Structure formats: structure tokens, C-alpha cells
Amino acid sequence: MGLNDTLRYFLSILLIVLNALGFAVGAVLMSLGAAAFAQYVRTPGLYEVIYGRDIYEVLIFFMASGAALILLSILGILAGVFSLINRLRCLAAALLLLYAAIIFALYTLEVIAVSLDFSQFFAIKDDVNATIEAEFNSLLISDMYLNMSRIEFFFQWQNDNECCGWTDGSAYNTSTMAVRLGDSSWRPMSCCGNLVGNETCSAGHSSYYLVGCDDSFLASYSRYSWTYIGISISAALIEGVVLIISFSLIGLVHCSGPKSEKE
User: Fold this and answer.
1) Which of 113, 146, 173, 219 falls 20 to 30 Å from 11 in CA-CA distance?
2) Does any domain span residue 83?
3) Domain total for the chain?
4) Per the domain annotation, does 33 fall within a domain?
5) Which positions, given as ranges, span the membrane (predicted)?
6) 226: number of Cβ within 10 Å
7) Residue 150: inside a domain
8) How far apart are CA 67 and CA 30, in angstroms?
9) Percentage, residues of the chain above pLDDT 90
């Protein structure tokens, strides 16, 4: 086996391994997109406030991107496998050309996407605190029980993270429910822990959460944002390496029937 054949075998195996990794990344993208979409369906209002009205299309794009990456990875695996088989070199060359063209287009788009992800992340992070607090307070002042699909997320978040309100629970002092009851100390049940029997939550209850939810919410937001950015960067790096391997294999795979059969 000559040097070219050795290099061809090595690059083919490497292409197969990297595309198997790409398959896994595609599955992760689909899973994250599906999980976020399920959350969006449950509380569409909050997602639209944070990410904009086009968040539905963005989530669909994430799931579609994951599916496309899975299909592309299958194409890459086939190209790598066929490159190992002498009698299938012509088919391997055709698949490699198609694969390399798609990867080149995706790599260009991925570089642009990573740049946009960074700029969008920092731009939104600067505004998200004020935006969510304003939305939260406006829901409390309006009839919040007519907007349960939008405010229930806050109640659930308070319960899960043992916090109350955005910076603290004082925003509830002028909420529609507090006004109806004539009690500015009223708080939703999720603002208290360890309620017993028919106990109600108030600012004076012993298990009332004094901490606001802004820190935990922004920490979660940052964690998910960096996850998406990290996946995008990883995908761009992998695509760059795969692109180099693909072009190298195209040069090493010679589609010449008789010669291939002889080898």
C-alpha cells in the first residue's frame, strides 16, 4: 500500500468519525429545539417578549437544522465508506464533490451565524432585565388572571427557584389581586414555601421568599444562550476540518475504472 492509499484510508476513517460526531450534534440540536419549542407552546407570551415575535420560526429553524445535519452526516459517512472501497471510487468521488459543496456553503453560513449569535446575545442580555421586569409589572397591574398563559411562567419560576417577584416581591403590592383583596401584603402561593393546609401566602409569612428572581432567570438565560453559541462554534470548527478532509480526499480518490479494479 502506497503513501497515497495510506493517507486515503486515514482521511476516510477520520471523515466517518467526524460525521458520526456531526450526527450526534444534529440530534442534540433537534432535542434542544424541541424542548424549547415545547416550552414556547406552554408560555408563548414570555418567549416572544424575550426573543421577539419571530421566536417560533427560530425554534423551527433549530429543529430543521438538526435534521439537516443528521442527513448531511449520513451523506458524509457514505462518502467516507465508499472512499475505502476501490471499486466504488467513482461513486465516492461524486459523493465527496456533493458533500464538499454543501459543507462549504454551510461553513460560510455558520461563520455568519456565530458572529450574529455573539452580537445578539450581548445585545439582548443588556436589555433583558429591564424588558422582563417591565412586562412582569405590566401584567400585575392589568388583570393578571386574564393573562395566565403569560404570567404562569413567573409563578412556576418562583416556585422552582424559591424567589418572589423580579427584584423582590414588592411589585405584588399593587397587583390586581392585592387591590381586589384590599391587602397589599398578598402574594401568590409560589412566593412562599412550606404552606400548611389552607394557609395563604403574604409578605409577612415565615416562609415568604425575600429574594427576587432576576438573578436566577438571567443565569439560566446565559446558560442556554452559551449552550447554543458553543454548539454553533463547535459546528463551525468541525465543518472547517471536514471541508479540508473532503477536498484532500477528492484529490486522493481517482475515478478510473480499470485502474481501480486492478488495485
Assistant:
1) 113
2) yes
3) 1
4) yes
5) 12-38, 58-84, 91-109, 226-253
6) 12
7) no
8) 7
9) 14
